[in-house]
Write a structure and sequence with these properties.
The complex is a heterodimer of chains A (450) and B (343). With 450 residues, chain A is of the alpha/beta class. Chain A has 13 helices and 17 strands. Chain B has a single domain, classed as ABC transporter involved in vitamin B12 uptake, BtuC (Orthogonal Bundle), CATH 1.10.3470. Chain B contains 15 helices and 4 strands. In chain B, the strands form 2 sheets. Chain B has a two-stranded antiparallel sheet. In chain B, strands 3-4 form a two-stranded antiparallel sheet. Classes of the chains: A alpha/beta (450), B mainly alpha (343). The interface between A and B is large, with 47 and 48 residues.
């Protein structure tokens, strides 16, 4: 018979020592990342977020809707109101007591939809107001400019409405994160619907806004439609400042094209679509087919400007208030009760971004941008209105379902302009991180600043 | 050939708007000697007269739908326009449909009043100041006016459709012997062109065939002499400011169905209209009209694909290139006169 020297107490001691020994490097790493100094470390009882939206200029209405959503998100994070999507969000770490127990307050900046103005307002919020995170925007040019500034300053940038492939493509940054979908995803979601409705033998004519978003939108949709078998008759760039598109529409009439793709957004989209309908394109028969118009990126706020001209026209959108999942319903209820009308897709994406940032900080246990970035990278979540979503680590782009929508023929009210015709699954719009349309840039190293 | 004709039509249409705005601009410059950078804002206010009248005619009372619900699950609101309740559904619907043409009647007094207030309240204090001061103050006024409009109407464009009768397009080519579907043109754009021609003709007739117009023309040629004859030329020039404001306003009203009005539309036209005035010749009314149509047509031609293939970006600079060439060869513009804007 042998006597063992092992005792229960001894085993526990040994196990604890061995365990802590193995865990030591991770704990030290995590603690060192969290404890390291970083830009605008909130030391008091509050934390300041910077909401950088267009408060003047052509996208001011979209910016106003974003601000409403930000205010709602702050209220919900601080435990006020009905909690909105906090109750449907798959992560349950947010308890309505601010972020890490610090009450959330915010400052706002006016991007004016101009890159230099947007950078100046973001800089002011970081340097003067102590904002630990910057979010917002309604333009890809602005988003890319502010993302670069946040990278240099060492704060997290949670992009608002930006749809250019470049934001998480060649211009991606380690400190920048995008919840909104992109031009590639719009095209990938639209293509099967276009094939089903308009066939695979079509001739497309592109009118494209002459700036980063327009270029990537044109490249994406042309590639997707050509893969269907469509041919591209012409790609015409139009100046961003154009107001009357009649002289660009006129050549379409006798070009042999039977589809017009308007790679336009905002005022450009309203005017080009209105002009195209005025010139009778929708009533035209070409190549024995009905002439069709496509608007790859729809915005309900902008669609209002085009009035009845949007009827029957296909496009895509990141989110729509008519969705019936629990998250969307909670958000629409919360926003509608607070402001009296349903939220736009811009409002939805910035609300989600604010919650996702707060959630990442809480899970990381730190406001350090590098810790927050780590918490967001590869993070999978649900309950925010787009189904299961992944924040991909490779490029900081969210991958989720995309909505294909159509302008309603007979809207019931002023908000009822678009109807969802297809929910394209995330898998169908997912692309490889090294896809050629997103090539040319690198995330680089996270910058904590300070 | 059909494409060229189509672009000529487009150019004439664009030129109509340029000519109407430039006509008012040069009228103010010729009479009062003021360089009015707020003139584009008057065009924008005119378009918002159409929006305002449309909203007034669409004022509705609300009843609750017993069946449908709104996005919050509350009973949906049914809006019935008062005009339909007062005048019957058919007349009410007609008034709503024709709100843009009706806005002409609404805009004339509103724009004359705006012109009077602008001239008496602000601009008259700058008559003897340098042109640079006038430009600064009127540009500032333009920004204030557009921000006021944005405050009340928002930043997004507001759809203001033409009457049902003039929506859509027709086969213009068949009328002039082309194959069917070769030249399709929107009805309302032709209405706009005809309306512009009418307004321009009316302004010229007013100045040429009325005593008031004769005095104004005399004042434009020699203000001091007309004053020495005991005529209150300042009062007549103030009235001309009101008329110029109304011309810009009418251009805006009728432009509303072509592109949905937004607060910034005046600025979009302002710079182009100034180029039109300079190319036409400062203070020359026929020059403004001629240059308006000329630059409109050239701008349309420059947007043609084969021209852009030869000279990329030409559509963005054509107007300024033409302005440079004309000012180099004819420094006073196409129809400018000696002594205007010259020391």
């Amino acid at each position: 018979m042998t006597k063992s020297n092992f005792t229960r107490r001894g085993m526990l001691k040994t196990g604890a020592l061995a365990g802590s020994g193995l865990a030591l490097p991770t704990i030290f790493t995590a603690q060192s990342a969290a404890a390291a100094s970083f830009t605008n470390d909130p030391t008091g009882s509050t934390v300041t977020l910077g909401f950088n939206v267009p408060q003047s200029g052509p996208y001011a209405d979209e910016g106003a809707d974003e601000l409403r959503a930000y205010q709602l998100a702050v209220e919900h994070l601080n435990g006020e109101g009905d909690g909105g999507m906090l109750s449907t969000f798959s992560s349950k770490v947010l308890e309505g007591n601010g972020i890490l127990g610090k009450k959330v307050q915010f400052v706002t900046g006016d991007t004016q939809t101009k890159s230099d103005a947007a950078r100046a307002s973001a800089k002011s919020m970081i340097e003067k107001d102590g904002a630990v995170m910057i979010t917002g925007g309604s333009s890809s040019g602005v988003a890319i400019a502010v993302q670069g500034l946040c990278q240099e300053a060492g704060v997290i940038f949670m992009a608002g409405l930006t749809h250019s492939n470049d934001t998480t493509g060649k211009d991606k940054k380690a400190n920048g994160f995008r919840h909104f979908f992109n031009a590639y995803m719009s095209a990938a979601a639209l293509a099967p619907v276009l094939a089903a409705r308009y066939g695979t033998d079509r001739k497309a004519y592109h009118l494209t806004a002459d700036y980063t978003w327009g270029w990537t939108q044109e490249e994406s949709i042309a590639s997707a439609t050509e893969a269907l078998g469509w041919s591209t008759v012409n790609k015409v760039r139009t100046p961003l400042a154009s107001t009357d598109f009649s002289s660009y529409i006129a050549p379409v009439l006798n070009s042999g094209a039977d589809v017009l793709i308007l790679n336009h957004y905002g005022g450009n989209m309203v005017n080009s679509l209105t002009n195209a309908v005025q010139f009778g394109l929708r009533d035209k028969m070409v190549n024995n087919k009905n002439f069709e118009i496509i608007v790859p990126l729809y915005s309900r706020l902008m669609a209002r400007g085009a009035g009845k001209n949007v009827a029957g026209i296909l496009g895509s959108t990141n989110w729509h208030w008519s969705l019936q999942d629990a998250g969307s319903k909670a958000f629409v209820q919360s926003f509608g009760m607070r402001w009296g009308f349903p939220p736009s897709q811009a409002a939805h994406t910035v609300y989600c971004q604010t919650l996702l940032y707060a959630d990442a900080v809480t899970r990381a246990g730190s406001f350090n941008p590098c810790a927050v970035g780590e918490a967001l990278e590869g993070y999978e979540f649900d309950g925010l209105g787009n189904g299961k979503t992944l924040y991909r680590a490779d490029d900081h782009q969210c991958f989720k379902d995309v909505l294909v929508v159509k302008g309603k023929e007979n809207p019931d009210n002023e908000f009822d302009l678009l109807e969802v015709v297809e929910v394209t699954p995330a898998a169908q719009v997912t692309y490889a991180p090294d896809h050629p349309m997103f090539a040319g840039g690198a995330l680089g190293e996270c910058n904590p600043g300070a | 050939m059909d494409v060229i004709l189509l672009q000529i039509l487009n150019g004439l249409d664009k030129g109509s708007a340029y000519a109407l705005i430039a006509l008012g601009l040069t009228l103010i410059f010729g009479t009062l000697g003021v360089v009015n950078f707020a003139h584009g804002a008057l065009f924008m206010i005119g378009a918002f007269c159409a929006v305002t009248l449309s909203r007034l005619i669409n004022l509705s009372y609300v009843t609750l739908d017993p069946v449908k619900t709104d996005f919050l699950g509350n009973p949906a609101k049914i809006k019935t326009p008062y005009v339909e309740a007062w005048f019957g559904p058919e007349t009410g619907a007609w008034l709503i449909d024709w709100s843009v043409p009706l806005a002409i009647l609404f805009a004339i007094p509103v724009m004359i009043a705006v012109g009077f207030i602008m001239e008496r309240g602000l601009i008259k204090h700058f008559y003897k100041r340098p042109h640079a001061d006038q430009i600064l103050v009127t540009f500032g006024l333009a920004i204030v006016l557009q921000e006021v409009i944005k405050y009340f109407y928002g930043a997004n464009p507001i759809p203001t459709p033409a009457p049902e009768l003039f929506r859509g397009s027709f086969d213009f080519g068949v009328l002039i012997g082309f194959d069917p579907n070769a030249i399709i043109y929107p009805y309302w754009r032709l209405v706009y062109f005809a309306f512009s021609a009418l307004v321009i003709g009316a302004v010229f007739a007013f100045l040429r065939f009325t005593t008031f117009g004769m005095v104004v023309r005399a004042g434009m040629a020699d203000r001091e002499t007309v004053g020495l004859l005991g005529i209150d030329i300042d009062k007549r020039f103030t009235i001309m400011f009101g008329i110029a404001a109304a011309v810009a306003g009418l251009a805006g009203v009728m432009y509303a169905p072509i592109n949905s009005p937004n607060y910034h539309m005046g600025m979009d036209f302002l710079v182009l209209s100034f180029v039109v005035v300079v190319v036409g010749g400062m203070g020359s009314l026929p020059g403004a009209v001629l240059a308006g149509f000329l630059l409109g047509v050239l701008e349309s031609f420059a947007s043609m694909n084969w021209i852009k293939d030869i000279i990329p970006g030409i559509d963005q600079v054509i107007i300024y290139l033409v302005a440079i060439i004309i000012l180099l060869t004819r420094p006073r513009g196409l129809m400018g006169k000696k002594g205007v804007m010259e020391d």
